[in-house]
Amino acid sequence: MVALAFIMIPWAALVTVRTVSRAKGDVLSVFHPTTDQLKETNAPADLIMRVAQIVPRTEAEGPGVRFAVWFQGCPLRCPGCCNPEFLPFAGGEAKTLGEVLDWLDRTRAAGAIEGVSLLGGEPFAHAAAGAALARAARDRGLTVMVYSGFTVEQIRANPDPAVAALLALTDLLVDGPYERERPDTERRWVGSTNQRVHFLTEKYHPDDPCWRARNTLEIRVDRTQVSVNGFPAPDAIGLWKPKWARKSGPREQK
Predict the structure, then answer these.
(1) Regarding beta strands 115-119 and 66-71, do their DSSP bridges make them parallel or antiparallel, or are they unpaired?
(2) 102-132 pLDDT tens trace
(3) Residues 203, 171 contacting (CB under 8 angstroms)
(4) Which of 98, 157, 175, 236 is least surrounded by CB atoms within 10 angstroms?
(5) Does 5 reside within a domain?
(6) Least confident interval from 114-123, 130-139, 161-170, 238-247
(7) Least confident of 41-45, 141-145, 201-205, 237-241
């Protein structure tokens, strides 16, 4: 689990947020899948996905405006995980692939987006659903970014064909477990210094200025709650995420 978060806090909460992170790091690697690795993922529309949260338009979870999906369930237990509510596989909400794609298409109709970001939880623990969503995103001309607590070496060693399919459909991968004692304050969209950014296709390049911009948090307010997603400063997590914070499952956001 990497250091990025989605929470929903009852309206009564007073939330204080600050971020201190600038991207300059060079711990980057470049991999390019071959054409035969890009396997078709023909999943039915009624394929069930276990979803913790969806933010249909965000600029805090990767380059450009993105449709971000947090999967519910992770086999890892990284100390200091920002999303402990998303670790149990029994939580979240069951969504069909068709429902998520309908939401994605409505979001695109309302305004251009650049891609889809898959977070968690652990996306590669939901590889079949993740690959199906990634294929659908690619078919719509969108890019795919995945955050994983596993390293790319562990992912490639996994014999599950769905894991290989999801990796082959990924443009950007942030890999490795979040390490609370090694916060990264130099690179954008990265939680700790052990984690790496892998540029798996030609869609993105490490020299792009977007990697040198500041990290951000996004705060959304409605009549019942405050929702926060993005990358917090390590010493600010306790301020904006009280122990009693709750989530209400994925729902429509404007």
Answers:
(1) parallel
(2) 999 999 999 999 999 999 999 999 999 999 9
(3) yes
(4) 157
(5) no
(6) 238-247
(7) 237-241
Q: What is the DSSP string of 33-94?
A: --GGGS------TT-EEEEEEEEEEESSSSSSSEEEEEES--S---TT-S-GGG--TT-SEE
In a domain, 194, yes or no: yes
Query: Which amino acid is residue 5, in one-letter code?
Result: A
**Nearest one of 178, 188, 175, 176 to 231, comparing CA atoms:** 188
Per-residue pLDDT at 136 exceeds 90 = yes
Domain containing residue 117: CATH number: 3.20.20.70
Sole residue written with tokens 């659908």? 136
Amino acid of residue 133: L
- Structure confidence at residue 34 as a pLDDT band (50, 70, 90): very low
Q: Is residue 1 part of a domain?
A: no
Q: Which domain holds residue 144?
A: 25-213
CA distance 249 to 158: 30
* 6 residue type, one letter: F
CA distance 175 to 202: 18
- Domain count within the chain: 1
Residue 252 lies in a domain: no
